[in-house]
């Protein structure tokens, strides 16, 4: 029996997960740098994440508006940018419709990160959270009732633009 050179053997090591975690660490380093030093020059970040991912904290009205995925822009008006290494989250203060809000985004919920100033972008496969089934498999318990099926409405990812909420100062003459 000969090996098929076109077929890649299955790895017993989780290389794909290690690579994804290493690339998420690039995002962590960028966010930590900006949190400490501010955004240099024209750099700004687009961060997309799954809004329904466990641990994501966003206002209910934004979750209703973006039930699957949301993109935030870190450019001019944000505050309290922070990375919590233990919780593996990024938190940031932003204003939506004039209402200040703090968002908490687990690193595993990230879908993409981009710095358009230098045309740099990363795309992630979100890491699936551990499910109840896995947790319950080790502990015998009574059967749970079947959950009601959720009807998902397909929606394209949308970018939240903060330009409409910025105060413009007239140019000095």
How would you portray this structure in words?
The chain is α+β, with helices and mostly antiparallel strands and 173 residues long. The model is unreliable at 132-166 (pLDDT under 50). The chain is built from 3 helices and 8 strands. A hairpin with a 2-residue loop joins strand 4 (89-96) and strand 5 (99-106). The strands form 2 sheets. A 5-stranded mixed sheet has the order 7-6-1-2-8, covered by helices on one side.
Which features does this protein show?
single chain, 173 residues, alpha+beta, five-stranded mixed β-sheet, three-stranded antiparallel β-sheet, 8 strands, 20% helix, 27% strand
Placed side by side, the strands forming the largest sheet appear as 7-6-1-2-8
Number of DSSP helical runs: 3
Q: Based on the structure, what is the oligomeric state of the protein chains? A: single chain
Shape summary = globular
How would you spell out the order of helices and strands? HEHEEEEEEHE
Strand portion, in percent? 25-35%
Helix content: 10-25%
Sheet/helix structural class: alpha+beta
Main β sheet profile = 5 strands, mixed
Outline the low-pLDDT stretches: 132-166
Overall radius of gyration = 20 Å
Give the overall pLDDT as a whole number.
Answer: 78
Tally of strands: 8
Quote the distance from N terminus to C terminus.
81 Å
Secondary-structure blueprint of this entry?
Blueprint: H1 15-37, E1 45-50, H2 60-65, E2 69-74, E3 79-84, E4 89-96, E5 99-106, E6 110-115, E7 120-123, H3 132-137, E8 158-159
Parallel strand pairs: 2-8
Antiparallel strand pairs: 1-2, 1-6, 3-4, 4-5, 6-7
